[in-house]
């Protein structure tokens, strides 16, 4: 990337654009899941998978790939308990990808010299020094 070593305006613009895109996509994923629109959820997973892969966000990419294939999983399960379990798995993947995103977003914000946003709070990291107190 053509980036100034100190300012990093170019890469920051790309990363912050991804943040907006991801947050909007998560909202759409929640709506699609609540309507049991697995086709839309699959497309959203595919969309966010590509964006996260471009930035090298592997955990986010991998979770989005699972969502991309959720439609096939649901269709394989049919009805009943197996389908309910598949729904629970999909809901868990959505939650997990959001958590993975929040973790990487906080790290990237810190890299660009900004504090994490209030909804991106990280769990307290324990260092050997803090455990001794």
Q: Write down the CATH class.
A: Mainly Alpha
Overall shape: it is elongated
Summed up, the domain count is 1
Q: Output the structural class.
A: mainly alpha
Protein model, in words:
The protein has 133 residues and is mostly helical. The chain has a single domain (9-112), classed as Up-down Bundle (Four Helix Bundle (Hemerythrin (Met), subunit A)). It is built from six helices and no strands. Helix 1 packs antiparallel against helix 2 (38-54), helix 2 runs antiparallel to helix 3 and helix 3 (58-68) runs antiparallel to helix 5 (81-111). The chain is elongated. The relative contact order is 0.10. Residues 122-133 have low confidence and may be disordered.
Tags for this entry?
6 helices, Four Helix Bundle (Hemerythrin (Met), subunit A), 74% helix, AHP1-5/YPD1, HPT_dom_sf, mainly alpha, histidine phosphotransfer kinase activity, 133 residues
Write the layout of secondary structure elements.
Elements: H1 9-34, H2 38-54, H3 58-68, H4 70-77, H5 81-111, H6 128-132
Helix pairs in contact: 1-2, 1-5, 2-3, 3-5, 4-5
What is the gist of this entry?
Residues 112-133 are annotated as: Disordered. With 133 residues, the chain is mostly helical.
């Amino acid at each position: 990337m053509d980036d100034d070593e100190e300012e990093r305006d170019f890469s920051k613009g790309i990363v912050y654009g991804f943040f907006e895109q991801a947050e909007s996509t998560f909202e759409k994923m929640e709506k699609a899941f609540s309507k049991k629109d697995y086709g839309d959820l699959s497309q959203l997973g595919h969309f966010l998978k590509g964006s996260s892969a471009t930035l090298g966000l592997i955990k986010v990419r991998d979770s989005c790939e699972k969502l991309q294939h959720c439609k096939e999983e649901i269709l394989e399960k049919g009805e009943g308990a197996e389908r309910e379990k598949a729904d629970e798995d999909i809901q868990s993947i959505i939650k997990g990808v959001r958590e993975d995103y929040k973790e990487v977003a906080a790290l990237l914000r810190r890299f660009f010299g900004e504090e994490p946003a209030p909804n991106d709070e990280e769990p307290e990291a324990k260092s050997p020094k803090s455990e001794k107190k």
